[in-house]
Amino acid sequence: MDTKQHFSLWYVVGAMLIMLAVQSFLGDPGVKELAYSDFQALLQSGKIREVTIADDRLSGTAGTGGNSTTDSRPASAATPGDYQFVVGRVPDANLVAELQAAKVKFGGRIENRLFWTVFSWIAPAAIFFMIWGLVMRRAGGSPMGSMMDVGKSKAKVYVQKNLPVTFADVEGIDEAKDELIEVVDFLKTPERYRRLGGKIPKGVLIVGAPGTGKTLLAKAVAGEARVPFLSLSGSEFVEMFVGVGAARVRDLFQQAEKLAPCIIFIDELDALGKARGASSLGGNEEREQTLNQLLVQMDGFDTQSGIIIMAATNRPEILDPALLRPGRFDRHVAIDRPDIRGREKILQLHARQLKLSPDVKLSQVAAKTAGCVGADLANIANEAALHAARHDKMAVEMSDFDEAIDRVVAGLEKKSRVMNQQDKETVAYHEAGHALVAESRPSADKVSKISIIPRGIGALGFTQQLPTEDRYLLKYGELLDRLDVLMGGRVAEQLVYGEVSTGAQNDLQRATDIARHMVSQYGMSSLLGPVCFHDADAAFLPVSPDATRGEYSERTAQAIDEEVRNLLGEAEQRVRATLTDRRVQLDALARELLEHETVERSALLILLNQPTAPVLQVVS
């Protein structure tokens, strides 16, 4: 329940209580209700002074003294003991005669119930409703709630003062910035292009992996152009009511026409623009109607008005082709994961607010964060600052960044998890096997750190490798080296203990994925040849091989499985030979891990240069 609903509920309750209090105040305060028998007794005793006869009740004044028959005072004269009373009227034909006999002043009254009802209930209710409507309008709501606004666009409008983001706040995606600088120029100086007959592009589609800065880049375009920015998500168009999405699309473009020149930004376009199919289900039909309305609106508005539509998605392969054709989303801007220089610029951007120690080298941090996107790097910088603050440091040091990288990549350190000696030795040999194989393969990434401290949910240890450079292509031999490194931990356990544990599950999964991609997608099998057996995967989201299986026979599927097993079996044999030759170093590294729990690269190099290191005695 949001704030407006809370306010409405408490307002109604409070209004009802106030109206009841008003009724109590207006309902004859201090009047005593009497039974008709008590009224008759008071009448006989001469204590009734005055009576007013209505259709359904008797009211009047009674006192402790007598009436005019026993007292010289006038009947209407009040005494300190007098009080008001009311009696429910009953059929009594002798009432008037008895009043006359007692010489009580009496009279009749015609009550206007309609006027009293309006005055006591409807008028206060109308006043409270008017106050409620005024407050809700000022709060941006409506007295009738969301039902009245169901067909209105939910776009959030950001004007220049509320949108301070510019291209100076975007780093690491220079090519995408260059593409969108021209869009800014369209909005600032449209006559420069109109004089030559050119048309401003209607739509710009920003495509990239999650966290690469698509929304930030769109806001930067609006901030640079100094135009209003209408932002909403694709899922906000679709509701349970048929026709609501189309109505919201129309309302959105009506708002944009009033604010032109402006930018409409639709985040997560795939929620709205998924390719249309032949399904007749109600939900799909409503979504398709919304998409059809969007297509019509994009065709209908004039680009000369200065309205540009921008959208972001990480799944462009599922978008409807009608959205991607020229005349709708004319420009496609792809944002890739930043390279090492881009990561360094992003870190410098987020480090502006941090107090850094002189020993911090952001270039080294960028080198350790290969594959990270802008959101990951922002999180790492923030985690480093928090780690330094927890330890009461005066500045953020390099060790804080190292700990932040370990936390983001491997998970939170589990200091409370206690392992027995045998499990610790198994983990130590497992990680030592990964490290030694990585250092033995020429194309494998070099080891930066080895740890047997449990992290995250299931990680009992990890071996951190530091890429020397960003790689975009991997050769057959490099993929085999990666298979060897992944198999190093399992083979080390088998070599030392004669059996394997469950700790190699993630390694086997990753190795199997690499081997299957080599066979089924990269054409690296001599048996199957240069054939790709899978459909195109999603552009930026990982998709399981089963979800993208192409058209091939069961016999081919068996051959693929056999080739995957062969690749993994050959890798296991190569790794066993390597670790057998370096058994002394394997034992020495495991002992070092058991003693210190973490081994840095400098200590690893010293250990590898000592071929006569002592052998660790293993307790079975």
Mind explaining what this structure looks like?
By secondary structure, the protein is α/β, with parallel strands linked by helices. It folds into four domains: 31-111, Signal recognition particle alu RNA binding heterodimer, srp9/1, CATH 3.30.720.210; 156-335, 3-Layer(aba) Sandwich (Rossmann fold); 340-410, Helicase, Ruva Protein, domain 3; 421-608, Peptidase M41 (Methane Monooxygenase Hydroxylase, Chain G, domain 1, Up-down Bundle), CATH 1.20.58.760. Helices cover 47% and strands 12% of the residues. It contains 20 helices and 14 strands. It has helices at 3-26, 36-44, 95-101, 113-138, 174-188, 191-194, 214-225, 244-259, 282-300, 321-324, 340-350, 362-368, 374-390, 398-410, 421-440, 476-497, 505-520, 554-581, 583-596, 601-608, and strands at 32-34, 48-53, 57-62, 83-88, 105-108, 156-158, 203-208, 229-233, 262-267, 307-313, 329-335, 446-451, 462-466, 598-600. A six-stranded mixed sheet has the order 6-8-9-10-7-11, sandwiched between helices. A five-stranded mixed sheet has the order 1-4-3-2-5. Strands 13-12-14 form a three-stranded antiparallel sheet. The protein is elongated, with a radius of gyration of 41 Å.
